[in-house]
Design a protein that fits this description.
The strands form two sheets. A six-stranded mixed beta sheet has the order 6-7-8-3-9-10, with helices on both faces. It has a four-stranded antiparallel beta sheet with strand order 2-1-4-5, with helices on one face. By secondary structure, it is an alpha/beta fold. Helix 3 crosses helix 4 and helix 3 packs parallel to helix 6. The chain is about 35% helix and about 20% strand. The protein folds into two domains: about 240 residues, P-loop containing nucleotide triphosphate hydrolases (Rossmann fold, 3-Layer(aba) Sandwich); about 35 residues, no CATH class. The chain contains eleven helices and ten strands. The longest helix is centred in the middle third of the chain and has 14 residues. The N and C termini lie far apart (about 45 Å). A hairpin with a 2-residue loop joins strand 4 and strand 5. The protein binds adenosine-5'-diphosphate (ADP) and magnesium ion (MG). The site of adenosine-5'-diphosphate has 12 residues, from helix 1.
């Protein structure tokens, strides 16, 4: 699904509120992976709520395969947009409320899709199998008994159960330890055909798997940069009030010191490998 944000502005309906997003314009093709970064309060969560059609633009429009979100009824937004988008909200485990992990996993499919129990279980086994979780165990235990890494995986599996064309992730690795982060990133990296919109404070973690980076600053789109150009755009990060990823800062510094590498790399281990070979 092609998603076009056309000069989108949004203001929360509270007294004295300014623009939470102002004149944001970009488009995403099916399968693109984009990181959305920006300081706290810059509008990241607002943007993904707009893309998920949970809230509607106050000005501008969002088009999904050309269809305006403003042309759809609430039911139409659910069937034409929201069912095609999977969302992993920030700290999803704080919203768990089912008795068993299996019910937590399948809640959306049970309630918003017209599928029989057999089909739901088949999908659950297929997705959960990739995640080193076991449906039969999930049926027996409370989601609260899972480890923090397993809780996050359960929430991601739940978002993927409906085979979404688009996956939105709001700070998916926040609060996780290094091994949990690595595993989650590996799972996300495996979603080749899915459009991924990923809000993160740890761009470093995801640099290897994204194609593009959208930088928000004070409700505006400060930059929309293809990954290959990031190394030449470090000043954009600085002026938006974000520290650029270390792996890029090191390469920038090396270039200034006259050390020219054959290509830009986006992962610290790869950078170390390149430096070893170029000695
Ligand atoms: N529910 C809300 N009601 C009123 N203002 C809000 C609400 N949610 C966010 N805001 C305001 O909108 C702006 C953007 O917030 P948000 O999209 O949450 O930013 P981010 O996710 O980048 O931290 C901020 O000024 C924030 O205070
Ligand atoms: Mg946020």
């Amino acid at each position: 699904m092609k998603i076009e944000c056309c000069n989108v502005s949004y203001r929360y309906d509270v007294p004295g509120a300014g623009w939470a997003l102002s004149d944001v314009d970009f488009s995403l093709d099916q399968g693109e992976k984009v990181a959305v970064i920006g300081p706290a309060g810059s509008g990241k969560t607002t943007l993904i709520q707009l893309i998920d059609a949970l809230i509607l633009p106050v000005q501008g429009d969002i088009r999904y395969d050309g269809q305006s979100v403003l042309s759809l009824s609430k039911a139409g937004r659910l069937s034409s947009i929201r069912r095609r988008i999977g969302v992993l909200f920030q700290f999803p485990e704080h919203q768990f409320f089912h008795e068993t992990a299996y019910d937590e996993l399948t809640f959306t499919l049970q309630n918003f899709f017209d599928l029989n129990e057999g089909e739901i279980e088949r999908r659950a086994r297929e997705v959960v199998g990739r995640f080193q979780l076991d449906v039969d165990v999930l049926r027996q235990i409370s989601p609260f008994y899972l480890s923090s890494g397993e809780k996050r995986k359960l929430a991601l599996a739940s978002a993927l159960l409906s085979s979404p064309e688009v996956l939105i992730l709001d700070e998916p690795t926040a609060g996780m330890d290094a091994s949990g982060r690595r595993e989650l990133i590996r799972l996300i990296a495996g979603l080749k055909d899915v459009t991924i919109i990923l809000v993160t404070h740890n761009l470093e973690d995801f640099l290897d798997i994204v194609d593009r980076c959208i930088i928000l600053s004070e409700a505006r789109l400060a930059a929309d940069i293809r990954k290959d150009h990031l190394i030449r755009s470090l000043d954009v990060f600085q002026s938006a009030g974000i520290v650029p990823p270390l792996v890029l800062r090191v390469q920038d510094w090396l270039a200034k010191e006259g050390v020219n590498l054959p290509r830009t790399v986006f992962d610290m281990d790869q950078l170390i490998g390149l430096l070893r070979h170029s000695r």
